[in-house]
Each structure stands twice: as C-alpha cells, then as structure tokens.
Amino acid sequence: MLKSKISPSLMCADIFNLRYIIDEFEKNNIEYLHLDVMDGHFVPNYCLGTDYCRRLKAGTKIPFDLHLMVTEPEKTLNAFNFEFSKEDIVSVHYESTDNIEKALELIRERGARAFLTINPDTPVETIRRYLGKFDGLLLMTVYPGFAGQKMVPGSLERITEARKLLDEAGYPEMSIEVDGNVNYEKAPLMKKAGADIFVVGTSSVLGPGDLGENILKMRNLLEEVSE
Ligand code: DX5
Ligand code: ZN
Q: Cα separation of 213 and 69, whole Å?
C-alpha cells in the first residue's frame, strides 16, 4: 500500500487567509497543492488561472498538483510559463482532447509528472492503452467543475478496478489520486480501495474547523487504514 499523500484543493481555500493556509500546509508537510484550472468550456465553470499559479509558485515550495479541466490542454499548457519540477503533477482529462498522448508527452517534456484523468462515466479500462505514457492516474469521484458535490456511486469500485489493473500491468508503484467529496468518512474507504493521493476540499480539511486539527484528523484516519 503506497504512503498516503494529501493535496488540498485551493479553489476551496479562504482567499482572505491564503498566506496563513499555505504556512499551515508547510508546517504540516502537506505533499501537494491541488490547483483546479477551468476554462468554462470543458467544464461549465471558471477557476484559478496562470497568474494565480505563477504567483503561488514563487511563494511556496510545496509541489503543485495542477488539475487542468480545459479543452485541448496540449494547446495551452505553455500558458503556465513557469518552471515545473519532477515533484509537480499536471493532470489532463482523457475526455478533453482527441490527442491525450500529446498532452501527456508535453507535460513530461516540461519536467512534471503527467497524470491521466478520467471522469466518472469513462470506463477504467480506457487507461490500459495509455500505459507507459502517464505517470499517475487521477480518478474523479465527482463530475468535474464544482466543489461541494457528493461522490458518484460506484467510485470506490472504480478505484479498486484501477488499482488491480495497474498492479497486474506491472505498475504497483503508480499513484491513484482521488478528487471530489474526499471527506473523513470516505477517505479511509478510498485508501482501502487503492487510492494514495487525496484531494481534500470543502468536504474535510478546507471545511469547517481548525485547519491544523483538520489536517491531523485526516492524516490519522488515513494512517489507521492497513493493508
Ligand atoms: C472539482 C475539483 C475538486 C473540488 C474538490 O472539479 O476538481 O478538486 O474542488 O472539492 P470537494 O472536496 O468539495 O469535492
Ligand atoms: Zn480537482
């Protein structure tokens, strides 16, 4: 079972307290910052932009987990004109382009890890043909575009199916990231099913309560899950 990593979704963060929030994340060794970028076309919403990401990159060492909910990401990836490191993740949606391989290839060329993302209605089996061309899987547990949604039924089974497919194909070290309604009750179930990177938003860590305590609560709940 891979070590659990927490990736808070900054679209859910209180913008008036962002510096305090990032400092808390650094103090608590949060592994990633989840940055939801939306173009109002692939999803019916707009969110976070290149300037926001560039300024954030200059202000923290926490690796990025950039979630591109944009149409044809291969055509606009270079709008993120700052250095990526090999710790950074850039996720692109299978459903967002006819050339997902090009998008994944460009991400690797830019020095980040290329994560393939599939929506709840896309069969898990779809990822098989791209094995070797992506570095991790982002499995959406809600339909992308908005925070505060409920997990799509069947998501836990999909995590299990993806974990089995990757393990049997020779990728037992490949991460499965889950995004959407990762709350205190569901996160342990998602881990048990095979996920190791947890996008946490309004449903838990960036919801009500003290931020430091919320992080610790999520960490403990995940730690308690054994093989
Ligand atoms: C939705 C985004 C998610 C969302 C998570 O399209 O990809 O990252 O912000 O927020 P919650 O935890 O509220 O589902
Ligand atoms: Zn996201």
A: 30
pTM of the model: 0.97
CB 26 within 8 Å of CB 51:
no
User: What residues line ligand 1, using a CB cutoff of 6 Å?
Assistant: 9, 11-12, 34, 36, 67, 142, 144-149, 179-182, 199, 201-203
Reduced to 3 states, what is the DSSP secondary structure of residue 110? coil
The predicted-structure confidence for 106-129, as pLDDT tens digits, reads as follows 999 999 999 999 999 999 999 999
pLDDT in tens, 41-99: 999 999 999 999 999 999 999 999 999 999 999 999 999 999 999 999 999 999 999 99
Residues 6 or more apart whose Cβ sits within 8 Å of residue 164: 194
- Cα–Cα distance, 84 to 112 (Å, whole number): 6
- Strand 33-39 and strand 46-47: the pairing is antiparallel
Report yes or no: 123 and 100 within 8 Å, Cβ to Cβ. no
Using the mean position of ligand 1's atoms as its centre, give its distance from the Cα of residue 24 in Å: 20
Pocket residue to mutate for ligand 1, from 6, 149, 206, 218, most atoms within 8 A of Cβ: 149
Beta-bridge partners for 6: 198
